[in-house]
C-alpha cells in the first residue's frame, strides 16, 4: 500500500513522460540545494530544470551525478560537498546513511517540523487547488528517538558490507540480523543499535543473534529460501508489555525449541512469546498459524481509560504517544455532542471508532482486513462499549446504496485511508452521503489533497492540522476537517 503519487496526472507526467537520456551520468557542479519537496527529496535547479537529490539538506552546495534525466526533471546523487548547510546536525546513529530508517537525522528537529508542515501546504496548494485556512503549527513528537512500538528485523546470510569493509580486503561474518537496505530485498544491514524502539528491543536482537552464531543456527538465505531463522518482530507498549515473534523458515523442532527457550529464560519481561513456522516464499504471516510459546497471545495498550488488545496480526499505530495526539485532533474536529451517528472508515482495529464511541450515539467502522474487524469488536467488548458495529470488506464494495438502506446516515464521517488515499467511488459516495462533517486523517497529504479536490464540490475545508508521528523521517500525518456547504 505504498503510493508515491501526487495526483494521477502528476504521477503520469513524472513517470511516463519521454525521457531525455543525454544528462544521465553527467556531473553538475556547485548545485545549491534550495528546499525539500514531497517525499523528502531535496530540490535544486539546473538550466531551468528541477533536480531532485537525496541525502542532502537545503543550503548544501554539492556536485551531483545525474542518475535519471526526464524531460521535466532530473534525479541525482551528491558526489562531493563544497558547503554544508547550517541546518545540518550531527546524525546520532552509526547506521545513518546506509540504513533506510531515519533519513532526516542530519536535519535538526525544529526544521524537520517546518518542512513537514510546508509539505502539507505545498500539496494542498499544488494539488487540491481549493481555498484553505491557515495550516496549523505541526504537533511535534515529544520523543524524537525510541518512539516506535514495533520493529521488524530480518535474518540473512548475506550481510550488507560497507565500502570500507570491502576495500579492507578482510573477511567478515556474513550472517546478519537487521533491516533491509532500501531497494535491495536480499541485502540486510546488521543492526548494532537502533534508536527507534526502547525497552529490551536492542538487547533481544543482539543477544539472539549472538546465540544463533554461537550455536551454528542457520540464518535465512533470502535468494534460495532456506535457513532456520527468518524474521524477528518486537512489539512494546507504554504499559511495559513486550511481544516477541520469531519466524522460522524451517520446521526444525530442536532448533526452534533452543531459540524459544533461550528467549524465555533470558528475557523474563517478554509477556507474549510467539513463533511462526513460515515455509512460504514471503515473510508476511497474516495467513500463517501463530504459536504461543510462553505468556499471553496479545499485549495491551492503554489510551485514556481505554484498553486496546494487540494480537500478533493486529495493526496498531506505531508511535503510540503521537497516535493519541492524532486521535485527539480527530475527536476535537468531529466535535461530537453525544447524538451523532459516526462512520469510521478504514477503521483498522477500530481504535478511532472505540476512542470516540462514548461521545457518539453510534459508531460504524468499516475495514478491509477481517482479523482487524475481529479485534475492533473485541476491543469494544473489553471496554464495555455497546454502541459500535464493525463490517469487513473493501470500502468501495461495502459503502454502497444497499448498505445505506440498512444503516442510519452519518452525521460525521471520520476517514483514515492508507497512503493511496480513497478510491474514487468512495469519494463519490461521500459526496452523495452529504454528512455535515468529514474528518479526513491521512499519512499522505498528496493523495489527501487529491481526494479533497473532489470533495470540494460540496465541502469547504475549515481546519488543517499536521501531526508528526515519525521524527527523523519525511513522513507527516495530516488531519483535515471539511464541512458541508450550506
Ligand atoms: C492508515 S490505516 C488506519 C487504521 C486506523 N484508523 C488506526 O488508526 O489504527 C488504513 C486502514 O485501511 C485499511 N484498508 C486499506 N485498503 C482498504 C480498502 N480498500 N477497504 C477497506 N479498508 C482498507 C487497511 O487495512 C488499514 O487498516
UniProtKB/TrEMBL annotation:
Keyword annotations: Methyltransferase, S-adenosyl-L-methionine, Transferase
BP terms from Gene Ontology: rRNA base methylation
The protein, known as: 23S rRNA (Uracil1939-C5)-methyltransferase
One Pfam short name: tRNA_U5-meth_tr
Binding site for S-adenosyl-L-methionine: 317, 346, 367, 416
One GO MF term: rRNA (uridine-C5-)-methyltransferase activity
Domain TRAM span(s) in chain numbering: 21-80
The family this protein is said to belong to: Belongs to the class I-like SAM-binding methyltransferase superfamily. RNA M5U methyltransferase family.
Active site, per annotation: 443
Residues of the signal peptide: none
InterPro entries named among the record's database cross-references: MeTrfase_TrmA_AS (IPR030390), MeTrfase_TrmA_CS (IPR030391), NA-bd_OB-fold (IPR012340), SAM-dependent_MTases_sf (IPR029063), TRAM_dom (IPR002792), U5_MeTrfase_fam (IPR010280)
PROSITE patterns the UniProt entry points to: SAM_MT_RNA_M5U, TRAM, TRMA_1, TRMA_2
Source organism superkingdom: Bacteria
Amino acid at each position: 500500500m505504498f503510493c508515491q503519487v501526487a495526483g494521477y496526472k502528476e504521477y503520469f507526467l513524472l513517470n511516463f513522460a519521454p525521457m531525455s537520456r543525454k544528462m544521465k551520468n553527467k556531473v553538475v557542479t556547485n548545485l545549491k540545494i534550495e528546499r525539500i519537496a514531497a517525499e523528502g527529496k531535496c530540490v535544486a535547479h539546473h538550466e531551468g530544470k528541477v533536480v531532485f537529490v537525496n541525502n542532502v539538506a537545503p543550503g548544501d552546495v554539492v556536485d551531483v551525478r545525474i542518475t535519471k534525466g526526464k524531460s521535466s526533471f532530473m534525479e541525482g546523487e551528491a558526489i562531493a560537498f563544497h558547503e554544508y548547510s547550517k541546518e545540518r546536525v550531527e546524525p546520532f546513529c552509526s547506521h545513518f546513511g546506509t540504513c533506510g530508517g531515519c533519513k532526516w537525522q542530519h536535519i535538526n528537529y525544529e526544521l524537520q517540523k517546518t518542512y513537514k508542515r510546508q509539505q502539507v501546504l505545498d500539496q494542498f496548494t499544488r494539488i487540491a487547488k481549493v481555498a484553505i485556512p491557515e495550516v496549523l503549527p505541526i504537533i511535534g513528537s515529544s520523543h524524537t528517538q525510541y518512539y516506535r512500538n514495533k520493529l521488524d528485523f530480518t535474518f540473512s546470510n548475506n550481510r550488507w558490507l560497507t565500502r570500507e569493509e570491502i576495500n579492507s580486503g578482510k573477511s567478515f561474518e556474513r550472517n546478519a540480523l537487521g533491516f533491509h537496505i532500501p531497494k535491495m530485498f536480499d541485502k540486510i544491514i546488521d543492526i548494532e543499535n537502533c534508536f527507534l524502539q526502547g525497552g529490551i528491543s536492542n538487547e533481544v536482537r543482539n543477544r539472539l543473534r549472538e546465540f544463533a552464531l554461537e550455536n551454528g543456527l542457520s540464518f535465512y538465505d533470502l535468494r534460495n529460501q532456506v535457513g532456520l531463522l527468518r524474521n524477528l518482530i518486537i512489539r512494546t507498549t507504554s504499559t511495559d508489555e513486550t511481544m516477541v515473534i520469531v519466524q522460522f523458515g524451517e520446521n526444525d523442532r530442536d532448533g526452534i525449541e533452543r531459540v524459544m527457550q533461550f528467549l524465555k529464560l533470558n528475557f523474563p519481561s517478554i509477556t507474549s512469546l510467539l513463533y511462526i513456522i513460515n515455509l512460504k516464499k514471503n515473510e508476511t504471516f497474516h495467513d500463517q498459524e501463530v504459536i504461543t510459546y510462553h505468556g499471553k497471545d496479545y499485549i495491551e495498550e492503554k489510551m485514556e481509560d481505554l484498553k486496546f488488545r494487540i494480537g500478533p496480526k493486529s495493526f496498531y499505530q506505531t508511535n503510540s504517544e503521537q497516535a493519541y495526539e492524532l486521535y485527539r485532533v480527530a475527536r476535537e474536529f468531529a466535535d461530537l455532542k453525544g447524538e451523532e451517528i459516526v462512520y469510521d472508515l478504514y477503521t483498522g482495529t477500530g481504535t478511532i471508532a472505540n476512542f470516540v464511541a462514548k461521545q457518539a450515539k453510534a459508531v460504524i467502522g468499516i475495514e478491509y482486513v477481517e482479523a482487524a474487524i475481529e479485534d475492533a469488536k473485541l476491543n469494544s467488548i473489553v471496554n464495555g462499549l455497546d454502541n459500535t458495529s464493525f463490517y469487513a470488506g473493501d470500502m468501495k464494495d461495502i459503502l454502497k446504496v444497499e448498505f445505506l438502506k440498512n444503516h442510519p446516515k452519518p452525521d460525521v464521517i471520520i476517514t483514515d485511508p492508507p497512503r493511496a488515499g480513497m478510491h474514487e467511488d468512495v469519494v463519490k459516495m461521500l459526496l452523495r452521503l452529504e454528512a455535515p462533517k468529514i474528518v479526513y486523517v491521512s499519512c499522505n497529504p498528496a493523495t489527501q489533497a487529491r481526494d479533497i479536490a473532489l470533495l470540494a464540490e460540496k465541502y469547504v475545508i475549515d481546519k488543517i492540522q499536521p501531526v508528526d508521528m515519525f521524527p527523523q523521517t519525511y513522513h507527516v500525518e495530516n488531519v483535515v476537517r471539511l464541512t458541508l456547504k450550506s
